[in-house]
């Protein structure tokens, strides 16, 4: 693919080989539709293969969100179609493994809410800078499916098993200050400083030894590659949940803005 082939990702070259990459569906808080989800599998290879790119900074368009997760229409399609579920499963796997395979440093400027596939991108970055008042959540269990699109491979490494289990099972929100405190993100900052700080870090990395920096990243990413079987299993279990009854209730509850009444939570008569 070429940069102009992307419909929902914008590319803005910065000085000295830094590229600003923007998730660009601001009218829906940069939520991922089918096309954008697929583009997130391809963008890392395109950037990795471009010799003009040294460091990547990823952010969300607008002031409200980094990415507000997946469109509910995609969730509904998955709950009704094995074919759609298998397609999304492959893409979710590709997003994770293609990010890990990208040799260039990736920095995320988390300027607002981060959920779903957008959260996977936000937290799989090599350096993450989050707005203090921004909030993130792995909201899978709120929908009635297990956490699977990135969480099992990286949350325990970032914030430890105790915090990972709590936040992934409850789907509670985490703001920028708490995310930095527990190690889920690298830094938090006032919203107006998030992108400038991210670009400054990128500029510093772009001036360093590219061979040394990329080799260091590759070595450290092996911790996540070791957890590959854990991730693959979590992704398969998530997709099985999409074919169950709870996700239909979770989807209806989200659309009605009410608490879900999951069939699996009901006591037997």
Brief sketch in words of this structure:
The protein has helices at 34-49, 72-80, 82-101, 116-124, 140-143, 151-159, 161-170, 176-181, 191-206, 210-226, 228-242, 245-256, and strands spanning 9-13, 18-23, 55-60, 65-68, 106-110, 113-115, 127-131, 135-137, 174-175, 187-189. With 269 residues, it is α/β, with parallel strands linked by helices. The strands form 2 sheets. The chain has a 6-stranded mixed sheet, sandwiched between helices. Strands 4-6-8-9 form a 4-stranded mixed sheet.
Describe it.
The protein has 269 residues and is an alpha/beta fold. The protein has one domain: 2-enoyl-CoA Hydratase, Chain A, domain 1, CATH 3.90.226. The chain is 53% helix and 16% strand. It has helices at residues 34-49, 72-80, 82-101, 116-124, 140-143, 151-159, 161-170, 176-181, 191-206, 210-226, 228-242, 245-256, and strands at 9-13, 18-23, 55-60, 65-68, 106-110, 113-115, 127-131, 135-137, 174-175, 187-189. The chain has a 6-stranded mixed β-sheet, sandwiched between helices. Strands 4-6-8-9 form a 4-stranded mixed β-sheet. Helix 1 packs parallel to helix 3 and helix 2 packs across helix 3. The radius of gyration is 18 Å and the shape is globular.
Please provide the count of β strands.
10
User: What is the oligomeric state here?
Assistant: single chain
Count of discrete structural domains: 1
Shape, principal axes of CA atoms: globular
């Amino acid at each position: 693919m070429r940069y102009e082939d992307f419909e929902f990702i914008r590319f803005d070259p910065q000085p000295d080989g830094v590229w600003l990459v923007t998730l660009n569906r601001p009218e829906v808080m940069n939520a991922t539709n089918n096309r954008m989800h697929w583009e997130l599998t391809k963008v890392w290879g395109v950037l990795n293969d471009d010799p003009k790119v040294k460091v990547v900074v990823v952010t969300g368009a607008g002031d409200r969100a980094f990415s507000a997760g997946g469109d509910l229409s995609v969730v509904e399609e998955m709950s009704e179609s094995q074919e759609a579920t298998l397609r999304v499963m492959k893409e979710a796997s590709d997003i994770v493994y293609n990010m890990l395979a990208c040799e260039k440093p990736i920095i995320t400027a988390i300027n607002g809410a981060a959920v779903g596939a957008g959260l996977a991108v936000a937290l799989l970055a090599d350096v993450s800078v989050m707005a203090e008042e921004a909030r993130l959540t792995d909201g899978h269990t709120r929908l009635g499916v297990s956490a699977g699109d990135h969480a099992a491979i990286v949350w325990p490494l970032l914030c430890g098993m105790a915090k990972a289990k709590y936040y992934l099972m409850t789907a509670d929100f985490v703001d920028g200050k708490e995310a930095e405190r527990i190690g889920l993100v690298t830094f938090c900052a006032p919203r107006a400083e998030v992108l400038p700080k991210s670009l400054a870090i990128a500029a510093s990395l772009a001036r360093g030894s590219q061979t040394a920096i990329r080799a260091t990243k590759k070595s450290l990413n092996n911790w996540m590659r070791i957890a590959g079987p854990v991730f693959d299993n979590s992704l398969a279990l998530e997709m099985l949940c999409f074919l169950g009854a709870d996700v239909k209730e979770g989807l209806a509850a989200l659309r009605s803005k009410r608490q879900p009444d999951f069939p699996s939570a009901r006591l037997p008569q």
